[in-house]
Amino acid sequence: MASEPPDGAGLDCDRTDPACGVPTDVTLELSFDRFLLPDTAIRQSISFYTGEPANSVPPPSNMRPELTPVYDLLNRRVRYTLPPGLTLEPHALYTVELPAYTEQQPWGFRAFDGAGLDPAAPVRLSFFTGAGPTTPPPPVDVPSCEDFLSMVAGCGGGTCHGHGGKGAAMGLELESAEALRTTAIGRPAHQTEIGDTTGVAAQGPARFGANMPVIDPGRPDNSYLMYKLLIGSEPYIPLAGEDCPPDDRCEVPAADELERLRSWFVRGEPMPWLLPEERFIHHDEARRIQSFISRGDACADAP
After folding, report:
1. Cα 153 vs. chain centroid, distance in angstroms?
2. Structure pTM?
C-alpha cells in the first residue's frame, strides 16, 4: 500500500517556514494494490493519534463526529476526512497504524476475497504538521442522470442493452432513466445470482459479490456495473493526449488481481464497448460514472 501524506512527510521541516509540513486539514489517503472488501473501509480499520494511541483523532467525544472514510473503487484508495471544524494541531507529530485482521481482532482492511494485511509486517506511518490548513479544493462536478445516459449511450442505444438490435443483454437496459430504474437500480445483476435466491439484491452477503445490484445508489463499491468496467484496462487510462488528473493514480491493477476479480464473481468480458466509437469507457468517464452512483439518487426522479 501507499499513503498520502507519505511516511515521514514534514519531519525534516524548518519550523520557521510556514509553507513546510503537512496541512492541518489534511485528508488521509491510503492506496492499495488489491480491491477492498468495502465493509472494511471504515473508521475502525485505522488507529490515528498524536503522541500516545489514547490521543486519538478526533478526540473521544459523544458529541463530535468521527473521521469520514470514502472508498474510491477506481483507485483502490480510502480517504479519511476530518470532521467539519476540526483541524490537527500545528507543528505536531501524528501516527497512523493499520491493524491486521485476525480472529482475536476482527477488524482491519481486507481484500474482496477476505485476504488481510500481513500480521507479521505491521503498517505504521508518521507525519509532521505545518502551520495551518490549505486552500479548500473546488467543488466536484457530479454527473446528472442525463450525463450518465449520455456516457453509456453506445450500449443503451439498441446494441447491447437496449430494446432494439441485439436486445437487452442479461436483462439490463441502459437507454433511459425508466429502464435504469426497472433493470439496474437496486436490481441484482444476473451474473451475480449465485446465492439461495434470485431477483433479490443482497447487502453484505457472506460471500462478497453474491446477488450484487447492477447499481446500488450511493455505493459504487457494491455496484456490479463498476466491477464490469474495472476488469478491463481502459478505465484506468486517460485518453491519448490527456494527463492523469493530479488526485488520481491512473494505474492498471496487476493482471493477477484482475483475474482474482473474474474468478471470484465478475463474469464475462469487460463492458461497455461503445458504438459507433468502438471503444471502451476511458478514465474520465469511469471517474464520472463512479461519482454519479455515489450521488445516491441515481435517476430517481428523472423522466
Report:
1. 24
2. 0.89
